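Weekend entry, working from home. Most of the wet-lab plans are on hold until the incubator is repaired, so I used the time to fold the two sequences that have been sitting in the queue since the last round of cloning. Logging both here for the record. First:
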Amino acid sequence: MIERTTQFHCYVIENSDNKQIVGIGSIGLYWGSMTESSPFNIFVDPDYQGQGLGRMIINTLEMDEYFFRASRIEIPASKTALHFYKKMDYYFKNGIDEVDSEELYRLEKFNSDELTKVK
């Protein structure tokens, strides 16, 4: 379990008034792959949605070393998150625009900036 925690990074957004967590996002290895990564557990408290926090989380994850080291980033998207991720330039994996057996869309983005990858 402890070893697994070294394979991803987690970020939180706190409300500055009461220090409650209002947003969270993680990024890590995609099924142990050294060339692929996956953002996951991206949530924003419904009371704080529409304020740019989701975009802030995605932008933060896309500055993380797990993003830069990957040639491909895959994100599982729920039906309610699909529009948001498409706005963030994620596209249907293999052009498949239907949910899978887990009722999730599989989206991906390719990282073409080979020069900035973290080894």
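Second, folded right after the first finished:
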Amino acid sequence: MGKWPILDRIAMLDEPVDEETYERKLKKLQNRLLDLQIHHMRTGGRVIIGIDGWDAAGKGSAIQRMIFGLEPRSTHVWRIGAPTPAEQGRHYLWRFWERLPAPGSWAIFDRTWYGRVLVERIEGFCDEAAWKRAYREINEFERQLSDDGVHIIKLLFHVSAEEQKQRMIERLSKPHKRHKLGLEDFRNIAKRRQYLEAYKDMLDKTDTDHAPWHVIASDDKKQARLAALGTIADSLGRGVEIAQNVLDPRIAEAAFKLWGWQLPDRKTAGVRK
């Protein structure tokens, strides 16, 4: 665990990426994520991608690009909000244990168990002793998962106050985006200084070797998406050799017998078009 700076002191990526370059890089990363997912489906790997950050920081749009092209039956996106009546009164980690990935699956959490040391801390939904104890509980939770072979990737989307304001105004101005706003968003924005302190404590106390934090500077949404997908691909691809997806000769033979179909050039059997 290291000492992190206050988030507002982190440099933002201000170099825009042109549309053609963005689409090319995005497609490449999406293909790489699919290759890694297929690898985990074959080997029984389990992946947790935890995403936290400010309102209007681009988390949802990043998740949308992240899951595009993935095998849907092995991909589960969990949108975490206030606890349901059935979840209230139980330990706050209980509902996350219920959503852990099965072998061969990826679980993507849109907001995570870190709500305990963020919104619950700031809004007083739990007492001080409870949220201070949560740092140890969370580290133990993630250590248990890591020791059991689960890959954990934690992304924190950070947006500047001015950019967040402009995105919120855009939501107010466009009817089809107004559903994204609630009164709690304005309460959170008004407490930015308190959240900055809570984020710093969170990063300092829960950035571990087995479950490190990755801060995504998201004033530029396209750059943020590329950074997020690249971080996931690099983390999951470390030490992994992706086998070429060649056509099973038995399947090729069955297709030939039924339709007379055959590959025009067998050398291209493993090439993605």
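Plan for Monday: verify the second prediction. The radius of gyration is 21 Å.
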